[in-house]
Task: inverse folding
């Protein structure tokens, strides 16, 4: 069986509970998450209109810190850009491309990578070294 690496975002309390369960079972966190998915999908396919179909996973509301205002500002920006004549939009996109190329010539970009646990860091480091 082949495996794929994924990235998910879940609430901190749910992650803590998953880690606690993994420790109780002496299994890795990914096994607990995969097992939960298997159980959910099996229950969902057994009764397509049953309880599993009614209890769909829902994402939490985005945090209130400026998410709506940023989205509104971006929409206003796009609408203003679309009101420009095609020649001006082309000129601006060429200018943006030129600026991007100049920026790339300045040197390597910096990257900040954060991890929740040392184990996550260690797995990332092994994968970067080719030992995954």
Result:
């Amino acid at each position: 069986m082949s495996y794929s690496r994924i990235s998910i975002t879940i609430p901190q309390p749910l992650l803590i509970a998953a880690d606690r369960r993994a420790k109780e079972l002496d299994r890795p966190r990914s096994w607990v998450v995969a097992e939960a998915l298997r159980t959910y999908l099996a229950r969902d396919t057994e009764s397509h209109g049953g309880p599993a179909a009614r209890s769909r996973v829902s994402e939490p509301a985005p945090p209130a810190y400026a998410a709506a205002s940023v989205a509104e500002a971006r929409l206003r920006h796009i609408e203003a850009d679309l009101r420009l004549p095609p020649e001006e939009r082309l000129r601006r996109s060429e200018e943006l491309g030129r600026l991007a190329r100049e920026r790339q010539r300045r040197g390597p970009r910096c990257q900040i990578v954060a991890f929740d646990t040392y184990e996550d860091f260690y797995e990332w480091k092994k994968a970067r070294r080719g030992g995954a």
Residues 61-124 form one domain. The CA atoms of residues 104 and 111 lie 14 Å apart. The chain has two domains: 8-60, 61-124. The two ends are 16 Å apart (CA to CA).
